[in-house]
Automatic annotation (TrEMBL), chains A, B:
DNA-binding region boundaries: 29-48
Keywords attached to this entry: DNA-binding, Transcription, Transcription regulation
Record-given protein name: TetR/AcrR family transcriptional regulator
Gene3D superfamilies: Homeodomain-like, Tetracycline Repressor, domain 2
SUPFAM superfamilies, alphabetized: Homeodomain-like, Tetracyclin repressor-like, C-terminal domain
HTH tetR-type domain: residues covered: 6-66
InterPro entries attached to this UniProt entry: DNA-bd_HTH_TetR-type_CS (IPR023772), Homeodomain-like_sf (IPR009057), HTH_TetR (IPR001647), Tet_transcr_reg_TetR-rel_C_sf (IPR036271)
GO MF entries: DNA binding
Keyword Coiled coil annotated: no
Length: 200, 200
DNA sequence: TTCGTTCTGTACTTCCGAATACAAAATATG
DNA sequence: CATATTTTGTATTCGGAAGTACAGAACGAA
């Protein structure tokens, strides 16, 4: 009934997310987004209203995709609690390894967005999205920690909530270290050291 | 012999640094800088050439001030290695506590700058400054770790270099968690858990 | 084939913020 | 007190990036 799109929306959002992740919101021009998505200005604005709107939809898509993969690992009944936490760290390490192969660090919308108050105040949905993502992951890790304490694979020196915060921090730390140029091998050891603190 | 400045340069730089830390480079306008420093546009440009130049000098001043305080703790011969590392973490926690009292997280130029590749590519001095700061801290922590391994207060499960990366990551993680809204109490526990991994 | 509808690309407008120009002000020195 | 010199504040310019307008293109349906 009308002219069809020459691009897939989901693919476009993921491409946009990649660009935003690497350059940050303010330092990404709409032109960069056009080339990244492989589409003209007109199409971009036709499909996604504005840069702000595109950003919101892009991080939404990205965070959801990420969350699904993580959920699979953290909720895997075949693993002990400790193995689930280890699995989560492995996902992060794998992502950084892939990114490193392309010559850059993975970047992380959560960290970058959290670190920019102005970005959050730009549109309340942004802060909300990131906060929901964080909170969902927090609960998932907390649950895995409880499982681990029950099956004896995780220390009881900390409450599950404390463990969840620690794991989040550990992941953020690894991401920042990756940006600082730490080689994969070092990132792996950092993860191992961190997890060691959670052994019973 | 000429009209004197109405402001102190060092104070101005620290005020600018504070502003940049909270909003990030791209999201800080020169007007914000003027009000933060308490000076007109003309004066600002007269004293510091451009926004870029001001940014560079501001982070330079800030990182140096920070580094001096940290050096005192990490090099304190009265402390064991573990106590020095604990002291470093205490500095970070203290900074976050003060910031929290003002209703915001401390922010961290290192993390923010590392997380923004475009910012670094803007002027090579920026990346260099942050990298030098990181590297200096890295060496200082590594040294403290060695001391700790020698005096028996720090584990030998990891090499000093690995410990240094871990501690940097731990600090970054704490800063990110602070931005995410974690209360001081949680940050403290995260630090404690991390340091537990370094016990012999 | 023709029409209605949506997509695409380009040229244009608009706006915001960095940077500059310049006149007035403030001091030290002779 | 006069002059040289630097600072200060304001008005203005300038550039770049976001967003818009619009004409043409690509389909499906009648």
């Amino acid at each position: 009934m009308a002219r069809p799109r020459t691009f897939d929306e989901k693919t476009a959002l993921m491409a946009a997310a990649r660009t935003f992740r690497r350059h940050g919101f303010a330092d990404t021009t709409t032109e960069q987004l056009c080339t990244a998505v492989g589409v003209g200005r007109g199409s971009l604005y036709n499909a996604f209203t504005s840069k702000d709107e595109l950003f919101i939809r892009a991080i939404e898509a990205y965070l959801q995709a990420l969350s699904e993969v993580e959920h699979e690992v953290l909720g895997d009944p075949a693993r002990t609690g400790a193995e689930r936490l280890q699995g989560l760290l492995d996902l992060v390490l794998e992502e950084e390894e892939n990114a490193a192969r392309d010559g850059h660090a993975a970047g992380c919308i959560s960290v970058a967005t959290l670190m920019s108050p102005d970005l959050r105040s730009r549109d309340e949905r942004i802060g909300k999205l990131v906060e929901e993502d964080r909170s969902r992951r927090h609960e998932a890790v907390k649950h895995a920690a409880r499982i681990g304490q029950a099956d004896g694979s995780v220390t009881r020196d900390d409450a599950p909530d404390g463990i969840a915060w620690f794991v989040s921090g550990l992941i953020s730390g690894i991401r920042v270290n990756a940006q600082a140029g730490a080689p994969i091998k070092v990132l792996r050891r950092t993860a191992a050291t961190g997890l060691r603190a959670l052994r019973p």
